[in-house]
Automatic annotation (TrEMBL):
It comes from the Bacteria. Belongs to the FPP/GGPP synthase family. The keyword Transferase applies. Keywords: Magnesium, Metal-binding, Transferase. Pfam families: polyprenyl_synt (PF00348). Residues 55-79 have a biased composition (Basic and acidic residues). Residues 1-27, 55-82 are annotated as: Disordered. Transmembrane segments: none annotated. This is Geranylgeranyl diphosphate synthase type I. GO terms for molecular function: metal ion binding; prenyltransferase activity. It comes from Actinomadura hallensis. GO terms for biological process: isoprenoid biosynthetic process.
Amino acid sequence: MSVWGDDPAVLRCDHRPPAPTHRHSKDELCSEACLPAPFHRHSKDELCSEACLPADDRRPEDEPRADARPDAGGRDDPLPGRARTAAEVLGWSRRLLDPALRDAVERMPKEIRGVAAFHFGWRDERGRPASGSGGKAIRPALTLLAAEAVGGTASAALPAAVAVELAHNFSLLHDDVMDGDLTRRHRPTAWSVFGANAAVLAGDALLAAAFEALADEPSPAVPRAVRILGRAVLDLVAGQSADLAFEERTDVTLDECLAMAGRKTGALLGAACALGATCGGGTTGQSARLRAYGERLGLAFQLVDDLLGIWGDPDVTGKPVHSDLHSRKKSLPVVAALTSATPAGDELADLYLRDEALTGDEVSRAADLIDAAGGRAWAAAHAATLLTQAHADLAAVGADPATAAELDALARLITHRRH
C-alpha cells in the first residue's frame, strides 16, 4: 500500500468546510478566502478547484474549464490564446505534479517516506492521511511554463518540474534544522516531530530523488539538465553557507547580501526556468534568457520574503511577528538599513549587533528603525526593479502571448504575495 493509501485529501475535495467564495477581478489574488474562479482556499496556503464550491457558484456543466487540458502536453483552452490567472496556472501545475511527486516519495525507504510525507502535508506524525498544504509550488509551475514558452510541451518538462520541487524541499528540510524553526506552512516542522537526524536524512533522500527523476527520463537533454540542477544546488548550498556565516559578522555589505540571496533563492528559480526551456527544446539563448528571468524573480522573491519576515501578518505567514528580528538575521532590508549611513541605521547597529538578546520592545524598535533608515522602501523598490528586468528577459524569449502573460502572472504573485 502506498504511503498515502486512500488519503481522502487526494481522492476528493470535501475534506474541509467550504471557505467563503466571493470573488475579486479575475487577476487578483487575495490572502484571505477569495481567489479567481475556479479556485478558492480551504486554508491560507491551500488552493482548491471548484469541485467543492456551493452548487450555485460552480461553472455550468456544459461550460468547459478555462484551464482544461487533455494531458500534460498541450492546451485545450475554450478560448484560444486566453491566458490563465496565477491561481489557475498553479492549480494546473499542481494536478500534473502531485501524482509524479508522490510516486517519487513512495519509492523511498519506509522510514524516510514517512518523514517526507509528513513534510509535504500528506500524512500526520502518526502516518494517518492529512490535508496539509504542500506550498504554492511556484518553481515547478515555472518549469512547465518555460517549456511551453519555447514551443515545447509541459509533459516534456514534468520530470524536471518534479526534480525542482524535490530539490526545493530538500533545502527546506535542512533549513528548518539549521534555523531551528518549529513551524512551516502552519504545521510543525519535520525535525521538531521526528528529530533533526531523520529530517536531514529525509532531505538527503529528496535530493537524491530529484536527480533520479531527471535521469529516469530517456531524453538527450538529460546530461545538460543534470548539470543545470547540480550547479543550482551547489549555488544554493553556497548561499545558505554565506547566510549562516553572516550571523557571526558585523560588517556584512549589501553587495554580499545580494550575492548570498541570489545563490540561496535565485539559483533554483533560475534553474527551474532553464530546465523547462532545455526539456522543451529551446535554444541556448532562450534557456539563458529564461534562467536570467528566474534568477531575477528568485531575488525578488527573497526580498519579499525578507519583508514578510519582519512585517508579515503572523496569521497569514504562519510565523511569529518580527520572526527574523528575534534571531537577528542579516536579511536584505536589515543590511540595507545597517549600511545606510543614517542616524536610524546607526541606532539600529547599536541595538542589533550587540551580544545580548533583544527584548520584545527592542525587536519592535528595530523594525521601526529599519523602516526609518530606508531598508523597507529599498527592498520593495529593488523587487520592483527586478520584476521589470525579468519582464524584459521574458520578452526576448519570444513566447506566445498567453504563456508570457501566465509567466507574468506568476511573477506578480511572487512579488505581491502576503505569505
